Amino acid sequence: MYYNRTISKGLASLLETGGELRWLFDFVKNHKELDFLIGKNNSKEWVSIYRGLTRIISVLPINKTTVFIDADGKYKNISPNLYGQKNVNENFQNDIENLITLIEQNSQFDRYYKNKKEGYYQNELSKIYGICGSPDTDFVIIDKEAVIGYSNQAEKDNLLGNIQQKYKQLQREISNLNPERYGKDLGKKAIGNELDFLALDKEGNILLIEYKHGTNTSGIYLSPLQIGMYNDIFTSFPKNELEIAVFEMLEQKQKIGLINPNWKKPNSIKDIIPVLIISEFNYKSSAKTKFDEIIQFTRKQLGSSFLDNLQTFNFTMKNGLSNW
Prior knowledge:
By secondary structure, the protein is an alpha+beta fold. Helices cover 39% and strands 22% of the residues. The protein has 11 helices and 11 strands.
């Protein structure tokens, strides 16, 4: 198992003050609909620009003077001049502006941001507690789409596979319990392994944040299974290695400016806390009642300590975070 998404000093330096791609940092910070994701795995590293849920640009280093601009094919089709090999000194800001304009004009892309649902609010959270955050925020987002890596497929099948199977079985049992109330064939429902946000609070707690939009009723009431799986994955990771990774990622992001440089780093990692954040929740919805029912059912199966430290919040643009 491994988890540390710090990018190389060479790639990071391109975004730092005085770096050849610093203009890209300023461009994203000043565009409300855009945000960064930097990271690496065992085969590559990247700097990506997101518009809501979708990655419109990935900057992949080739050598010290050259990068490759990549993205999903649908964006390459509408703005081919933006993508491909670039010199690090080349300013392609106009091409990005053109891409954004084309996206805004094409309704097929609305669901990623413009409809003000999941992508819109994820982007808002990411910027408020990231690149646009203040020194006084209660927490900062260290990583998004956070994934534990595995050395090989056998290790992944053994460690992640067993955890996923446990929650797939719970899905089946919940579906059989009351298919009309909770949904039919839940056992066939995919259960992913990408945590929406990994954050760090002032007290030194790692927050495993899963986000749902208030209109996603089934997503909300079934979220205890998803959150429980992420909690199992990250609590099984060696705590000292997780602390090193989180602090290294924090330090790098603060140096670039992706997290406020004046946000005070805690002395050590205290605990791991699972968190559910819902935006614009309609309290007339049945989701809260069913959510509580799923929690209680799962505690009967797995023990009373299941998600006993779970924190839940509602998020609105007007009031920010409040207890759900």
